[in-house]
Amino acid sequence: MDISEAMASALLCASLGGEQEIRYDYGDSYNVIDCVTATHAIEFGLDKASSRDSFVQAWVASRNIPHDPPLKPMVYIVGRFAEPGKIGTELIAFGNAHGIETYYHWQARLDPAAFREGEK
Fold first, then answer.
1. Domain range holding 96?
2. Residue 11: C-alpha distances to residues 23, 45, 50, 115 (Å)
3. pLDDT in tens, the chain (120 residues)
4. Domain containing residue 34: CATH number
5. What burial class does residue 55 get, using C-beta atoms within 10 Å of its C-beta: 0-12 exposed, 13-18 middle, 19+ buried?
6. Could you tell me which of 43, 91, 92, 109 has the fewest CB atoms within 10 Å of its CB?
């Protein structure tokens, strides 16, 4: 069963003890990062090429959200398969090469029922 990126983000952020959808100033505008914990600015993305921007979002947020000590960037790739495929492997390699903590989480291990229960 596929779940949405938003649902995966909500489940994973809650499991990490983070706050969701944090807005921060960036120049004359603002950005929103998926999740902020006591130590990390976290962006979630599906195992698709469109998730490449997650690394930029996490890196920029980690440097622009006032926090002491500064936040570290982190990316969670939410996978459709038990093991990362070509895109998932590419995303993980990119994150590791650029000092961004990167994890692959198989979406089948997420429990949408827990998400729905938390909405009540």
1. 5-119
2. 19, 13, 21, 6
3. 466 777 888 888 988 899 999 899 888 888 999 999 999 999 988 878 888 889 999 999 999 999 989 999 999 888 777 788 888 899 899 999 999 999 887 766 665 554 444 433
4. 3.40.50
5. buried
6. 109
